[in-house]
Automatic annotation (TrEMBL):
Transmembrane segments: none annotated. Coiled coil: none annotated. Residues 24-256 form the Protein kinase domain. This is Serine/threonine-protein kinase. Its EC number is 2.7.11.1. It comes from Ureibacillus thermosphaericus. Keywords: ATP-binding, Kinase, Nucleotide-binding, Transferase.
Amino acid sequence: MIRYFLENKYHRIFKRYIDEKTNYCFSEVLGTGTYGIAYLIIEKRTGKKYVLKRLITKYRHSKKLRQRFQKEIQILKELNFPFVPSVIVENEVENIPFFVMDYMEGRTFEQTIFEEGHVYSLPESLHILKILLEMVVQIHHKGIVHRDLRIPNVLVHQGKLSIIDFGLATYLNPKQKIEEVKNPKKAANHCSDLYFLGHFLLFLLYSSYTPTESKERSWQEELQLPEEVKNYIERLLLIRPPFSSTEEALHCIPKV
């Protein structure tokens, strides 16, 4: 209860700060993550949309979480790609760090699947995966792993994709061997992003799936995919020997 009132207090402080001390005006809360809160803000002069992300109040004294927050800012600054938001400015308000970044237009794939009911065919799903892998190859070439490539963190707008929320991103560890990866979600190499993209692809494919029986089965049984596609996904998910690199995964996308 105390944390709730404290968070509300700092929400009001940030809203007042945005409206009175910056060139922006507060619009709405976009969402709350593991350690950050994102606001939609509007530039007063141009009407252009931006996003302000701040640290959750209860973590303002946590050295570990403050470092994690600064790491996200640094990583975004290093990724100079049109499909990744750029950092505009960073600062603090009453010991709570924040930064302003580009607002990326579009709908998340979570929204297109579960709110709009969009159905993705197998060829369309593989095409989307190809575009994402091309982006991830560029990110990996910068020495960075996203580690959270889920359907809420990829946007689509007029056929173009963008990647958001680098809160769990880290730097590639060239010394981490593939066979040493125990938890791909936390791996500091390409296996992490490929693992998440494997699940991302399954969400796309399940959008066209209609259950025929009440008993739940494995995705391999339910989706009835071509053998080449099934084997490919199993390599992404580390069920089979994984790809040696993101480039190999891109090169080996099944043609259907």
